[in-house]
Amino acid sequence: MFDLDGTLIDSVPDLATATDKMLVQLGRAPAGMDKVRNWVGNGAPVLVRRALADDFDHRAISAEQEAQALAIFMQVYGTGDSLTTLYPGALDTLQSLQMLGVKLALITNKPEKFLPQLLADTGMADFFQWIVGGDTLPQKKPDPAGLLWVMQQARVTAEQCIFVGDSRNDVHAAQAANVACVAVTYGYNYGEPISADNPTLVLDDLRELFL
């Protein structure tokens, strides 16, 4: 089981572009890529709230403000030329696992509507037998619901699975599902080292899975 943003793809350039377009339409100053990089990971609604607050803490943002901004974000995200790129080794890793007969699943907090085109654009459309987006189920990571759903569909136990991610949301979801978690160091973890969340294994490159 794999996370998407920060694990297989670097999507921050597109997310930052959409966030800044949203803010400008609302008469606010753009946030920029560095801020957005530390805000992603909890799904589009939380990213929008953090952008409106211009801070990681978004408790001051009302539901009405979120709804207005989220509608704009969902309209503008993915409308221009894609700036999203695969991380080195991502495609090689998926291809190798597929050749070994490993069943693959994608569990991401990104809204489901954006996934088919994104996977097609990055050459990953044919790898995943199960796909869970951020709004596929009522819960999203760090809740383990997505992992548990995939295991139920695949008829496998937690001991037969690993989850590969980049943030504490991924680690905590895997831990709650009693699944071993492999965490990569290069992704988005709010500017904090992923090792602090005690994943089962930490890698600098996905291809190290085969070492």
Report on the architecture of this protein.
- The chain has eight helices and seven strands; from the N terminus they run E-H-H-H-H-E-H-E-H-E-H-E-H-E-E.
- It is α/β, with parallel strands linked by helices.
- It has two domains: 12-76, DNA polymerase, domain 1; 84-210, Rossmann fold (3-Layer(aba) Sandwich), CATH 3.40.50.
- The strands form three sheets. The protein has a three-stranded parallel sheet with strand order 5-6-7, with helices on one face.
- The longest helix has 14 residues, at 12-25.
- The radius of gyration is 17 Å and the shape is globular.
Write out key terms for the chains shown.
211 residues, DNA polymerase, domain 1, 2 domains, three-stranded parallel beta sheet
